[in-house]
Write a structure and sequence with these properties.
Structural class: mainly alpha
Shape: globular
């Protein structure tokens, strides 16, 4: 989902006219639905093939997941955010990027910092298993899973002399589209 959000925001900045006028209305919903279905299919495969069956096909499923993550989703997310960041930095009409762009950038940055090590470790488990490193990667993935609400509240309350109001107000500030 981070990849889809990153690509959509990048397309919105690179081609704003197309994004506002010609982009199919249901594109985001269909894309997210397909990604959820893909995630459920792979989670089900991992559960049935690796946990229940303990077959040799487990390595095929995990290898496919690693391949999709390393060769498709992560590079696409990384490059779309780099393009988005460069485009926003070069634009003279926008001195301060919108809060939504900051949230997306920070979310992707922390995903690359905390979420990717677990995928790297799972890939390296094909060759050598190091228990201590795997546990650290699990801890980093847990931090990645819990940092997003903190990002939303901090970005939503940024620029105020001190945090006034509720978390709900901060979240509304982050997700309002101007």
């Amino acid at each position: 989902l981070l990849t889809a959000i990153s690509v959509e925001r990048c397309a919105g900045v690179l081609w704003p006219f197309w994004s506002r006028c010609h982009r199919p209305k249901l594109l985001s919903a269909v894309t997210c639905s397909l990604l959820w279905v893909l995630a459920c299919v792979f989670a089900g495969l991992v559960y049935f093939v690796c946990d229940l069956d303990h077959s040799k096909h487990c390595w095929t499923v995990l290898g496919t997941l690693c391949f999709l993550n390393f060769c498709f989703f992560t590079p696409l997310m990384f490059f779309s955010n780099v393009i988005l960041f460069i485009k926003l930095r070069r634009s003279s009409w926008q001195q301060h990027p919108a809060r939504m762009y900051i949230v997306i950038f920070l979310t992707v940055f922390f995903f690359l910092l905390f979420g990717i090590p677990l995928s790297v470790q799972i890939f390296l488990n094909f060759f050598v298993y190091i228990n201590f490193v795997f546990e650290i990667c699990l801890l980093l993935a847990s931090v990645n899973s819990s940092i997003n609400p903190v990002i939303y509240v901090l970005v939503g309350s940024y620029g105020k002399s001190r945090f006034r109001g509720s978390v709900k107000v901060a979240l509304q500030r982050v997700f309002e589209d101007r």
